[in-house]
UniProtKB/TrEMBL annotation:
Protein name as annotated: Sorbitol dehydrogenase family protein
InterPro entries for this protein: FAD-SLDH_ssu, TAT_signal
PROSITE patterns: TAT
Length: 182
């Protein structure tokens, strides 16, 4: 009989990593008690204030308060990879009140701060809205897909994104089933 403890199996390690990843993902996506308030964001987003600001701004612009942080990171990086857009984003944050933690609580408040009267800001906000609704963003190599199924455009119609595969023979003769995307 050996005094050494049994080795941890591959399945146990994978299950543990899976649980940690799930907990991490849920923490990043958790909704706050005070929707739209920067000080009520999850701890994960508090560690990344730049991403938190971008998510808050995106929620105001799109009208959806539960946005995926991983997509936000892609869209934000895309904007920041262009020097002019990055500078415009910083100016927008300043004018909107994000720099002094007086973030707007609504689209109307954002508008009252003059954001949509500035041509550069309108172009920037249009780009942000387009990213979220189409699931596409600009990269050095051209347009890239962040998401197809979870693009906000599909939520407008209350339908699921069409798939590239059909179903059993005659599937098209039945009306589509609409499911809520979490």
């Amino acid at each position: 009989m050996s005094d050494t403890p049994p080795a941890i199996g591959r399945r146990a390690i994978l299950a543990a990593f899976g649980a940690v990843a799930l907990a991490h993902g849920l923490a990043a996506c958790a909704s706050s008690e005070e929707e739209g308030a920067l000080d009520a964001l999850s701890e994960e987003l508090r560690l990344h204030p730049e991403l938190a600001r971008f998510l808050h701004l995106s929620a105001l612009l799109t009208g959806f308060d539960r946005l995926e942080p991983s997509f936000a990171q892609l869209y934000l990086h895309s904007l920041q990879s262009d020097a002019q857009r990055a500078a415009d984003l910083e100016r927008l944050y300043q004018q909107a009140g994000y720099r002094d933690w007086h973030a707007p609580a609504s689209l109307e408040e954002l508008e009252s701060r003059g954001i949509f009267r500035d041509g550069a800001f309108r172009i920037l906000t249009d780009r942000i809205i387009t990213n979220w609704y189409t699931g596409l963003y600009e990269a050095e190599s051209g347009m890239r897909v962040a998401t197809y199924v979870r693009a906000l455009g599909w939520r407008l119609d209350g339908i699921n994104a069409p798939t590239t595969r059909g179903g059993p023979p005659g599937f098209w003769s039945r009306p589509p089933v609409v499911r809520e995307i979490p």
